[in-house]
Amino acid sequence: MEGQALEKKDIRRLSKKELEQFLLNHGEKKFKVKQIEEWLWQKSVKSFDGMTNISLKTRGLLSDHFVINKIAVDKMQRSNDGTIKNAVKLHDDNIVESVLIPTDNRITACISSQVGCSLDCNFCATARLKRMRNLNADEIYDQVVAIKEQGEEYFDRPLTNIVYMGMGEPLLNYQNVLKSIEKITSPKGLGMSPKRITLSTVGIPKMIKKLADDGVKFNLAVSLHTALNESRDKIMPFNKNNPLEELIESLDYWYKKTKRKVTFEYVVWKNINDNIEHINALIKICRRIPSKVNLIEYNNIDDDRFLQASADKVDLYLEKLNASGIIASVRNSRGKDIDAACGQLANKETAL
Length: 352
Prior knowledge:
- It is a single chain.
- The two termini are 34 Å apart.
- The chain is an alpha/beta fold.
- The strands form three sheets. The chain has a ten-stranded mixed β-sheet with strand order 3-4-5-6-9-10-11-12-13-14, with helices on one face. It has a two-stranded parallel sheet with strand order 1-2.
- It has helices at 2-7, 16-25, 32-42, 56-65, 137-155, 174-185, 205-213, 229-235, 244-258, 276-288, 311-323, and strands spanning 9-10, 66-67, 72-78, 84-89, 95-102, 107-110, 114-115, 133-134, 161-164, 197-201, 219-223, 262-267, 291-296, 327-331.
């Protein structure tokens, strides 16, 4: 039975029009579409039996033809700083990780968009994993719902922010990521403001331009880490096919279209980018692209090539950026003790 169930299509992958046509073809009333979608996206129902205002006959029809492949939090780890990391099991037994990051006035969900990653950033643990597949929009959405529920249960506070900064490159799963954001922000879904959502990318120029052309309303962050091609080629080899000149052009296009500043995520490493040449190169880009800079603490992944730069070198970045009129701040990592910090998500099978 289980094998047969998995062959059924997840009802959440139907468009409204497809669901409407299915109901009409089976002698059902069109108005039921609204009820069904409300259960699926607003109330995040886990089974057709939970659709209590829909007749047993209709629920049986839906169950015969479709499934609701909800995710399951397989393992949950809690950090000393309150951060929660979830190992999320998908319907095909693949695992991704998501993170709840609590602060005094925020509950932030850091969510994944791919199983593994196809990119080759040398400093990131996720990049060591083989990319198995893209996540569907409903699987991304379910991660948000799970963290929303954890925020309410463990902190008695609502979810306030979402960052697409987990496993995978969101712009290489473009359609599913945008559909998930559509459902998250829709009044018929979770009703969150797109201004509370940030998509983080390593920087794929043609897809950044597509975001701008599609008129998205959420925020854009770019994992930059160096503003010199030679250095970026070494630590992020995909840069050879997506050089900084093309990235800068796409970000210029993004700002002209959206009028939304870019956030540059930037780790300072010892003997890699902790010198004045790299600082000046970053300032040059920031002067061209309206932006702010998050200087991120490096989270070790057992690679001796990458070591956190000294505090005085990070302070020098901060001083020079601020003196140039560029908004910059240091972002301390959360959840390091459970491998939940930036760059550490790698499906380690350890639980507290």
